[in-house]
């Protein structure tokens, strides 16, 4: 990778460097994008089994096993809070609670409101101090000889000097906050927690005012106010964060804004105290300054009665304590369990990513530096700095600090000035209350933009009112009126928003130091205002001073409009996405989209809908890891994504960019599925670049909004091409599209099955050799004693599953709905992806959502629809038939022209199509597509291992996955059909590593060490090893009529050795519940191969009338029977005990249980008096029951059960009937069976199934 500055690479998509692109400039941004970013629920669309596994691991690790079911229910509801009825684990009470959480958002435990109340008391101290000094400014300067007005200072020539001293005293707390308190708050918070920091702050807040009241000189007041400032700063940094971390997201803004509300209350109380002690003589100013200690007393007494921040406790590893805290803060344990898991996931992620990136969390200096060097943090620092500085620039504190002075200078008496100031405080409190209800509804940004213009003109009007003659009654009245009006706009806007906004924008890893910086910024400018206002007032007068601050309000308005993102109703973890959007992009969006839209709306022209900038989506990628905690640092590139890490817990994808750009995770960007080198070049050519350093890019052509739950009707939202077209349109297209000549969609009426265990019409089957399932049926058909020779009628039923293009049973709107498509994706990655990781889940979902440009080679409609088809096939019974629709869409997009240009996505699509067709009993079409995929992969060199100089590590690993999946597909199909296996001459690509999707990323410098636990590729790796044995077995079975017994026994020994070499997690049930089906399918596959390679010797023994107990010394027959019995027992037990098996499992289980139970059945046919006959009969009955259960999902199961019933009917029931009664003349020789000489004999299966 080329080296660039952090500014140039922030939020740019990083692309693997190849010889073709290494020297080209990719740090540019595409044109024509619409600004859309996706905000995710942290648990959105995590496959359920993986989510449940993560939950189980979490509760066991932290000693919360007693509540494991509670955690499961709570966490399962988190990704889909609006779709609760689809979560069967939830009870009716759970659903009602979750619904009430939305409709009754203010219903929370007393402990939460106690926490907010105690925090609010801390805020009241800030306001009380401001007004205490405000009133004392009228008397203490004269007491200490530092008055800046009057004849005494003018005579002595000290007015200017004294004004600076007064300014210094008034600003002393804010200097202390800026210089001391903000920076000691981080270690104090880290060491003793939020409550401890507030307690220490309350101590300073108690003794600081007390010291002021007892001061004997102005330096003593100055020192006491510095101590007060330390206490104020500790609270100012900690209280908003404490409130934000304890509050639920939907009312967090309202609760955190209690800071601003109680600052206003403190101002009112302070002014009230000023008035109460106005006439007590020389003690007035002492009581005014000392009264600020009053609210510190209840704060000291009550803060430790509140629960500690669960986020802080989790950060310290105190999970059980955090759970206890949440139990007090949430209305129901269900909410506590849910929130604990989500917070834990985010914290663990940030910690691991920080460690991986080399960030130090042990000292404040390193974290402070990262506020400016890390792009995500830098944007939060910038935004909080703007909103905090704006609070001082708006002019509120010139009134809060000096309102009494202003009114006195306007001609009012001291009493009138204090009364007017009290009115200012009352107005501030009254107008802050509406923000409680608007801050989370309208948003922080909207409140600021809606109020700052009014702050400007009201302050300007107040300044101009000073031109009114002082003897006019309107003089003081208009000044007070416009100041109150100014406060009316400040109260619901900048007043509460500044600290709410700053407390939530930083990632947890930098929250303390970030808030410290924000508070320091606020107080730094408070110092500037406090120091400069008296000289300004004296030097240029109130008119110019007020006019200056009016102008600063307009500057603040522009800065907020351009640089402040909205944060309303986002969880603290979700806000990472907001600040992963570059400053340039955000400002551009405001200028190019929002401003024109607003102008059109004001002028009432065709305003239309404003393009969304942040929207909610159900799109989630589990394969993500961040390079730095809460940030992203990557280079611009159209379809590639950055390295991300998973922490045993689900996390969201968050987009920093627009349609066609790369989604970024909350605390991490998503990984992407690699594409071929040609695709990289194609993607590069697709993108027009023009903006160096920008972080997004677009697809060529019109852009479309992503699929979002909030925008279900968005035009072009469907990632699958043409899913919403009418059936007639699809049929017309099929007629005009060049398709393969072998079209099995027209094959109806012939009994065909994709596993060759129930085949009847051999012409539909093509060549099937001895390893195939129907070889055994041919043997049964040969035994004329058992089946009527008159059973030659045409087929009475069809096992085929026609792939009709008639989709009228599923309306286009329903089939193209995001909800259905997302479910199909979930089922695909939950059930099909585990044993066959053809795709990388992260990038596929990014392509699918439109967040990353789709392949432009014509493969995407096929691949995306096939993934949906296979997902629907793996789904519940209720979704049966949807898969045919998606398959027909994929088939309609296929043309011979595509075969001229190969691509990785097309190979993936062809493999899915081949597997899908086999599962739908279209074995020859599936076999043909498999051959096309194989030859295309060879043409692309996917069978070869390339060095890192030629291809990046991520691409190479994905190619390994695809190649070896192809290999096991091909090996399995050839064994099933009894067709010669492909040879691996010239193949040197190594098997994939035992890694999950989230362990891979396009910018990785090296592969991780293979994991010691089950991963997405575990099953594939051991299937590859097994396929080597399977290939040898198939070759031996096909090369001669009856294979050598020693060869087959040697292969059986190899299978046993392979089994012994399996990791322990394959041999026994583990805590990884998602792994059970891949584990069992692999074991059944091995048992099936044992049956196939040893079955010839069983049939030979039966045909030659050898008693089943007189096997030779090597025990081939015994091994065959034993393998069959084990397989039947395993499948029956697993399927009966499995709750709601997917259809994909039903297909495999049917295949292998039929193969196995036919061994027991045929043994019964030949020797019903064998000692094991009772056990075999029991297995047949159990298998029929299993097949009856599976028949709801797999039609073949019903036909298989019927076959077993037919076989049972011909088993002699009388003890006088013996094996020798078989008609020898009708028995086909074993060599003929294995040579497939009956390949064109018709209607075998129908003969078996017809009534006799």
Automatic annotation (TrEMBL):
Report the sequence similarity comment from the record: Belongs to the major facilitator superfamily. Sugar transporter (TC 2.A.1.1) family.
What's the protein name?
A: Major facilitator superfamily (MFS) profile domain-containing protein
User: How does this protein sit in the membrane?
Assistant: Multi-pass membrane protein
Its taxonomic path starts at:
Eukaryota, Fungi, Dikarya, Ascomycota, Pezizomycotina
One GO CC annotation: membrane
Asked if Magnesium is a keyword of the record, the answer is: no
Q: Which compartments does it reside in?
A: Membrane
The residue ranges crossing the membrane are: 164-184, 196-215, 221-242, 254-273, 285-306, 386-410, 416-439, 446-468, 474-492, 513-533, 545-564, 923-942, 1145-1166
Domain named Major facilitator superfamily (MFS) profile: which ranges? 115-568
The entry lists its GO molecular-function terms as: DNA binding; transmembrane transporter activity; zinc ion binding
The main location class comes to membrane
Which PROSITE patterns does this chain map to?
A: MFS, SUGAR_TRANSPORT_1, SUGAR_TRANSPORT_2
Instruction: Quote the Pfam families the UniProt record gives.
Output: Fungal_trans (PF04082), Sugar_tr (PF00083)
PANTHER family, per the entry: PROTON MYO-INOSITOL COTRANSPORTER, SUGAR TRANSPORTER, PUTATIVE-RELATED
User: Which keywords has UniProt assigned to this entry?
Assistant: Membrane, Nucleus, Transmembrane, Transmembrane helix, Transport
> Which stretches are tagged as biased composition: Basic and acidic residues?
20-30
Region of interest called Disordered, as start-end residue ranges on this chain: 1-42, 687-729
A Gene Ontology BP annotation from the UniProt entry? polyol transmembrane transport
- Where is the sequence biased in composition, kind Polar residues? 31-40
């Amino acid at each position: 990778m080329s080296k660039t500055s952090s500014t140039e690479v922030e939020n740019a998509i990083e692309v693997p460097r190849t010889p073709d692109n290494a020297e080209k400039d990719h740090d540019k941004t595409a044109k024509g994008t619409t600004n859309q970013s996706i905000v995710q629920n942290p648990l959105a669309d995590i496959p359920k089994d993986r989510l449940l596994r993560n939950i189980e691991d979490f509760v066991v690790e932290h000693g919360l096993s007693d509540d494991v079911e509670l955690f499961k229910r709570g966490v399962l509801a988190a990704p889909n809070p609006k779709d609760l009825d689809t979560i069967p684990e939830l009870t009716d009470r759970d659903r009602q609670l979750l619904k009430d959480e939305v409709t009754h958002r203010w219903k929370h435990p007393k402990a939460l409101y106690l926490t907010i109340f105690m925090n609010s008391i801390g805020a009241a101290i800030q306001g009380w101090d401001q007004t205490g000094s405000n009133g004392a400014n009228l008397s203490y300067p004269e007491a200490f000889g530092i008055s800046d007005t009057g004849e005494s200072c003018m005579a002595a020539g000290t007015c200017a000097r004294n004004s600076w001293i007064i300014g210094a005293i008034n600003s002393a707390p804010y200097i202390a906050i800026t210089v001391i308190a903000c920076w000691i708050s981080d270690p104090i918070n880290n060491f003793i927690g939020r409550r401890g920091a507030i307690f220490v702050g309350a101590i300073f807040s108690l003794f600081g005012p007390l010291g002021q009241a007892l001061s004997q000189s102005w330096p003593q007041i100055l020192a006491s106010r510095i101590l007060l400032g330390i206490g104020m700063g500790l609270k100012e940094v900690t209280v908003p964060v404490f409130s934000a971390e304890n509050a639920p997201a939907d009312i967090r803004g309202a609760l955190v804004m209690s800071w601003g509300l109680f600052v206003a209350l403190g101002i009112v109380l302070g002014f009230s105290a000023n008035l109460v002690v106005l006439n007590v003589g020389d003690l007035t100013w002492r009581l005014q300054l000392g009264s600020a200690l009053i609210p510190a007393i209840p704060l000291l007494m009550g803060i430790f009665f509140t629960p500690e921040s669960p986020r802080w406790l989790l950060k310290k590893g105190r999970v059980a304590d955090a759970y206890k805290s949440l139990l007090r803060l949430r209305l129901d344990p269900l909410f506590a369990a849910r929130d604990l898991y989500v917070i834990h996931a985010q914290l663990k992620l940030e910690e691991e990513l920080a460690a991986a990136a080399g960030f130090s969390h042990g000292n404040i200096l390193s974290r402070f530096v990262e506020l400016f060097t890390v792009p995500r943090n830098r944007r939060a620092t910038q935004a909080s700095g703007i909103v905090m500085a704006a609070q001082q620039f708006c002019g509120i504190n010139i009134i809060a600090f000096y309102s009494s002075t202003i009114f006195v200078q306007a001609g009012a008496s001291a009493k009138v000035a204090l009364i007017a100031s009290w009115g200012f405080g009352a107005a501030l409190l009254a107008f802050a209350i509406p923000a409680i209800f608007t801050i989370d509804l309208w948003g922080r940004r909207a409140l600021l933009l809606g109020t700052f213009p009014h702050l400007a003109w009201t302050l300007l009007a107040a300044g101009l009112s000073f031109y009114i003659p002082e003897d006019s009654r309107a003089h003081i009245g208009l000044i007070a009126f416009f100041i109150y009006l100014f406060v009316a706009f400040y109260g619901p806007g900048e007043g509460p928003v500044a600290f709410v906004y700053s407390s939530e924008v930083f990632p947890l890893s930098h929250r303390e130091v970030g808030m410290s910086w924000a508070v320091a910024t606020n107080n730094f400018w408070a110092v500037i205002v406090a120091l400069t206002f008296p000289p300004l007032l004296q030097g240029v007068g109130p008119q110019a001073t007020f006019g200056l601050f009016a102008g600063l309000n307009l500057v603040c308005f522009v800065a907020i409009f351009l640089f402040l993102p909205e944060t309303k109703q986002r969880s603290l973890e979700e806000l990472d996405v907001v600040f992963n959007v570059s400053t340039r992009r955000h400002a551009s969006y405001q200028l190019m989209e929002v401003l024109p839209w607003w102008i059109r709306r004001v002028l009432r022209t065709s305003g239309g809908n404003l393009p969304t900038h942040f929207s909610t989506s159900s799109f989630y990628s589990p394969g993500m890891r961040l390079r730095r905690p809460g940030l992203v640092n990557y280079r611009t590139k159209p379809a590639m994504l950055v390295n991300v890490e998973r922490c045993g817990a689900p996390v969201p994808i968050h987009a920093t960019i627009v349609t066609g750009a790369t989604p970024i995770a909350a605390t991490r960007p998503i990984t992407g599925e690699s594409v071929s080198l040609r695709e990289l070049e194609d993607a590069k050519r697709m993108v027009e670049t023009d903006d160096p350093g920008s972080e997004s890019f677009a697809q060529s052509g019109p852009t479309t909004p992503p699929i979002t739950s909030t925008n279900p009707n968005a035009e072009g939202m469907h990632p699958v091409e043409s899913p919403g077209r009418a059936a007639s349109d699809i049929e017309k297209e099929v007629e005009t599209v060049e398709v393969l000549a072998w079209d099995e969609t027209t094959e109806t009426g012939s009994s065909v099955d994709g596993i060759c265990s129930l085949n009847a019409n051999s012409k539909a089957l093509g060549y099937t050799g001895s390893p195939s399932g129907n070889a055994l049926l041919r043997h049964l058909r040969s035994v004329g004693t058992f089946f009527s020779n008159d059973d030659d009628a045409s087929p009475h039923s069809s096992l085929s599953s026609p792939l009709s293009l008639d989709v009228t049973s599923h309306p286009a709107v329903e089939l193209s709905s995001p909800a259905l498509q997302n479910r199909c994706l979930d089922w695909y990655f939950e059930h099909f992806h585990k044993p066959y990781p053809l795709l990388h889940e992260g990038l596929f979902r990014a392509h699918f959502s439109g967040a990353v440009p789709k392949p432009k080679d014509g493969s995407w409609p096929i691949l995306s629809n096939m993934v949906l088809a296979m997902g629907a096939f793996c789904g519940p019974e209720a979704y049966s038939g949807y898969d045919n629709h998606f398959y027909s869409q994929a088939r309609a997009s296929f043309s011979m022209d595509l075969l001229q240009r190969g691509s990785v996505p097309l190979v993936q699509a062809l493999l899915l199509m081949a597997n899908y067709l086999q599962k739908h009993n279209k074995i020859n079409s599936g076999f043909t597509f498999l051959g096309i995929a194989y030859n295309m992969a060879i043409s692309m060199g996917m069978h070869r291992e390339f060095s890192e100089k030629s291809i990046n590590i991520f691409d190479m690993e994905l190619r390994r996955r695809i190649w070896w999946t192809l290999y096991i597909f091909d090996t399995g199909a050839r064994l099933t059909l009894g067709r010669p296996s492909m040879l691996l001459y010239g193949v040197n690509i190594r098997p994939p590593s035992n890694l999950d999707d989230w362990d891979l990323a396009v910018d990785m410098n090296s592969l991780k060490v293979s994991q010691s636990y089950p991963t997405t590729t575990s099953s594939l790796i051991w299937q590859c090893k097994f396929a080597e044995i399977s290939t040898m077995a198939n070759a031996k079975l096909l090369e001669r009529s009856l294979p050598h017994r020693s060869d087959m026994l040697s292969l059986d020994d190899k299978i046993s050795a392979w089994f012994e070499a399996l990791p322990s997690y394959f041999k026994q049930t583990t805590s990884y519940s998602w792994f059970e089906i891949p584990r069992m399918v692999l074991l059944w596959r091995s048992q099936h191969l044992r049956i196939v390679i040893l079955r010839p010797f069983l049939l030979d023994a039966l045909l030659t009338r050898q008693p089943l107990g007189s096997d030779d010394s090597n025990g081939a027959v015994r091994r065959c029977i034993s393998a069959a019995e084990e397989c039947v027992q395993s499948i029956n037990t697993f399927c009966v005990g499995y709750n709601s098996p997917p259809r994909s499992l039903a297909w495999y289980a049917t295949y292998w249980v039929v193969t196995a139970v036919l061994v027991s059945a045929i043994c019964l046919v030949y020797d019903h008096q064998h000692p094991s006959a009772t056990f075999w009969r029991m297995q047949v009955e159990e298998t029929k029951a299993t097949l009856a259960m599976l028949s709801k999902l797999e039609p073949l199961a019903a036909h298989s059960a019927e076959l077993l019933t037919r076989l049972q009917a011909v088993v002699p029931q009388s003890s006088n009937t013996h094996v020798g009664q078989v008609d020898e003349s009708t028995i086909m020789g074993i060599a003929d069976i294995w040579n497939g000489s009956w390949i064109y004999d018709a209607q075998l299966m129908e003969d078996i199934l017809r009534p006799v």
